[in-house]
Write a structure and sequence with these properties.
(S)-2-hydroxy-acid oxidase activity, oxidoreductase, two-stranded antiparallel ribbon, binds 2-OXO-4-methylpentanoic acid, 364 residues, 8-stranded parallel β-barrel, TIM Barrel, 12 strands, alpha/beta, binds flavin mononucleotide, FMN, 14 helices
Amino acid sequence: MGSEPVNVSEFQELARQALPKMYYDYYAGGAEDQHTLEENVKAFHRIIIRPRILVDVSRVDMSTTIMGYNTSAPIMVAPTAMHKLARPEGEVATARAAAACDTIMALSFMSTCTVEEVASSCNAVRFFQLYVYKRREISALMVQRAERNGFKAIILTVDAPRLGRREADIKNKMIAPQLKNFEGLISTEVHTDKGSNIEAFASGTFDDSLCWKDIGWLKSITSLPILIKGILTCEDAIKAVEVGVAGIVVSNHGARQLDYSPPTITVLEEVILAVQGRIPVLFDGGVRRGTDIFKALALGAQAVMIGRPVIYGLAAKGEDGVRQVLSMLKDELELTMALSGCCSVKDITRCYVMTEQDRLHCRL
Ligand SMILES: Cc1cc2nc3c(=O)[nH]c(=O)nc-3n(C[C@H](O)[C@H](O)[C@H](O)COP(=O)(O)O)c2cc1C
Ligand SMILES: CC(C)CC(=O)C(=O)O
């Protein structure tokens, strides 16, 4: 590819060329047959936009609030692990790019830069993603460190009691490096000749007994708002509202956990209808275009989180690459809004999209 990348897919190709196979496969891959991985993206293609015409779109404003914080667009950086495997600057580069784009970043619990390094890298609103270890005191300590370092919310990931079966990682014997955050607390480095070291680490360390009552525990150790990430059904959305969390993220973990779980965009509306506006609903999974963001907003998400495309930007061109990916998605969203007759984020409502289900009903 001689010229500059013009879309996320071209950034993915650059990342593939830049990265060792083991790392590229880890970032890009999904669970088992990778059915949901493919469908996360393809399900967006089946949603059609219903543009309105003759609207004055000479000024399109993408600014909005996410969990009460002002941002330049309804776009966030999803928590993804181990950015130093993509670029030596790691999460610090991602954080700076997110800040430059006036976008919120969620830092992964499994980051390669420390919470403190990311916090001091630049001034911006940031959220902290949490995994609960069997040794809960370590997770509690991390929550305190996030709080002390100015992170504004805790995103509790609930879809990984065990790690999904990622076959490329098994074949590549994907490494599990020591993470600086946990130095002196726990060894994250695992060496096994059998399969994925990351999987071996997670199965020994993640608390697979975590359940609804533990939200009470988390609330008791932090005053930060808590979001639950990994909800895919109306039943669980209602429970989340009942236990009093501040928000939820509709997510299937980028199709890396349960294969044949639903493509996230197909269940967003079910969750929105269950939540009835009581708490904000964020969304991730398969967002590769501004039109995808527009569709998720029309179906009720407050904002979308971007996972792999950010890593592809980082791997291809470091901090500047992340900035380019986020700017690209913002530009695409702005154009989509203009061409659909929406001047502001709140204008993007349900009547701007037609889903597969809508089409089915039309035929009945
Ligand atoms: C390489 C990689 C690492 C990830 N690490 C984490 C993590 O540490 N914590 C977490 O909650 N989610 C993690 N996720 C899931 C993302 O937060 C997000 O749900 C997903 O990437 C969204 O899908 P997308 O990649 O299609 O945008 C990871 C995803 C990828 C691709
Ligand atoms: C190190 C892993 C547990 C991070 C993760 O959530 C993932 O790879 O999907």
